[in-house]
Design a protein that fits this description.
The protein contains 17 helices and 7 strands. It is an alpha/beta fold. Helix 8 crosses helix 14.
Length: about 475
């Protein structure tokens, strides 16, 4: 009897091993329709052993494995059923949406739906009479001639054009450019511009941003860059005629007003300048024609000129050079054993660098040569004031506290500098009457006084300035 029990347990042990093998193969093999079920495989295995069921631990393990397999199979079937249901619902929703869109497009009889677009009359607004303007009236309104306007439209028209849809007719690129230029020139309220051009208030805001981005993307690199090659020679020759040698441009800063409302998230106190109004700083390099060759805008009004310069790309470009020069070393001149590089000039608010010369402080006891150097350099730097005056007189949005955040305002400033260069290069003259209203505005928003930079130490730049100071006539005759 004991031997039979041991034989039965051995057979059941072999059977359990067989069951585990079958179960593991079932989990690894993919499930295909029409295959023999696991239960059948288990029964076949049991019959092949030719044993009768016994109430033992191994028989209970067989039952547990069969139950777990059935539960797992049911869970898989439920997951598959839910997945197929979700796919069906998504497809049905997409089909219904496409069907509704198709039906609406068929029965649409007009493109100007009152649900989407407000019906605005275009008969009595400003834009309807623009084509009747003569050249003088056109330039008075948009600050550019018709030829310059057409040129700008050709350059950025494709970037500001919008696609025609079934819901509305897009605003044509010509009107978009006119809206932006009129806002740049007048800085009127969005509501006023909306009525004048027959568009929505939010549309005016969006158009100004779109045109600004298009100008920066399409025209910034072409019309705003430091001089090089023949252009550099022309700039140096022009400044030499102004009695200052080895000069490739003048650098300066000005403050552009911004509204404190737009600076609520950007620590508005940092934008308060010494005059007590909020502003962002524009740093610009100007050539002899009062055109901008490098601009850097956006720093808060409380920042010093030296700090703005140290954070600008211009400073990085100059300091990254192995010799510390901003312009080609081949243009340098050797005087009394000192190499005089091509450099920029600026006021005393900037640090003294080999690539940036500045005048002497009038607070110091100066020699006659130093007085002459300071006067000559300051006279050559006057092109910076001329450029800023024309920039703000033509694009008067730079004279008003606009409700634009600092990041977007800096883009507007740079875009106005690009437009200024295009007008100057194309001979689109600046009219004196454009500065008529800037006098009152300047008295209200007076520019902060220049703060001299006192961090200069004796360095090679001081040697270069001293050599230029006492050999100015020699350099002019070189």
């Amino acid at each position: 009897m004991q031997n039979q029990t041991q034989r039965l347990r051995g057979c059941l042990g072999g059977y359990v091993i067989n069951v585990r093998h079958v179960y593991s193969n079932y989990k690894m093999e993919p499930k295909v329709e029409g295959s023999v079920s696991l239960t059948a495989a288990l029964l076949t295995s049991m019959v092949s052993l030719n044993i009768s069921p016994v109430c033992d631990d191994q028989a209970f393990e067989l039952y547990r494995l069969q139950t777990a397999l059935v539960q797992q199979r049911r869970v898989r079937e439920m997951i598959d059923r839910d997945r197929r249901l979700r796919q069906y619902l998504r497809r049905r929703k997409a089909f219904l949406m496409s069907s509704v869109t198709a039906v609406l497009s068929i029965f649409t009889t007009t493109r100007n739906r009152h649900v989407w677009v407000r019906n605005r009359s275009s008969e009595d607004n400003f834009w309807s009479s623009v084509e009747l303007f003569d050249d003088d009236e056109w330039k008075a309104q948009f600050r550019v001639s018709r030829a310059t306007f057409d040129y700008l439209l050709e350059q950025v028209g494709s970037a500001i054009k919008r696609r025609r849809t079934n819901f509305r007719v897009p605003i044509e690129p010509k009107r978009r450019l006119a809206i932006a230029l009129w806002w740049f020139a007048r800085a009127g309220e969005y509501r006023t511009v909306s009525i004048m051009f027959g568009v929505g208030i939010a549309t005016v805001c969006n158009i100004v941003r779109q045109v600004t981005s298009a100008i920066l993307e399409r025209l910034h690199q072409r019309f705003l860059s430091l001089p090089s090659d023949q252009r550099l020679d022309d700039v140096m020759a022009a400044f030499k005629e102004r009695c200052y040698p080895q000069c490739a441009g003048a650098i300066g800063t000005t403050h552009i007003p911004v509204s404190p409302v737009a600076l609520s998230r950007d620590r508005p106190d940092d934008y308060l300048n010494e005059r007590g109004w909020h502003s962002v700083i524009l740093q610009a390099v100007v050539d002899h024609k009062a055109c901008f060759t490098d601009v850097y805008a956006g720093w808060p009004g409380s920042t010093s000129s030296a700090s703005v310069l140290s954070c600008s790309d211009l400073h990085t470009k100059a300091e990254d050079q192995a010799d510390g020069y901003l312009f080609p070393k081949e243009k340098s001149v050797l005087i009394e054993g000192v190499e005089i590089p091509v450099h920029l000039i600026g006021d005393t608010s900037f640090p003294l660098k080999p690539w940036l010369m500045k005048s002497y402080s009038l607070k110091d006891q100066l020699s006659p040569e130093q007085h002459r150097f300071t006067h000559t350099l300051s006279s050559a730097c006057s092109v910076v004031d001329t450029a800023f005056t024309r920039l703000k007189g033509r694009w008067r949005c730079l004279l008003k506290k606009n409700d634009i955040d600092a990041s977007n305002m800096s883009k507007v400033v740079v875009a106005c500098c690009v437009l200024h260069n295009i007008c100057e290069i194309r001979g689109d003259s600046f009219l004196p009457e454009w500065n008529t209203g800037t006098v009152n505005c300047s008295s209200y928003l007076r520019q902060p006084d220049m703060q001299p930079y006192d961090g200069d130490t004796f360095c090679p730049a001081e040697v270069i300035r001293k050599t230029i100071t006492y050999n100015l006539l020699t350099l002019l005759q070189h």
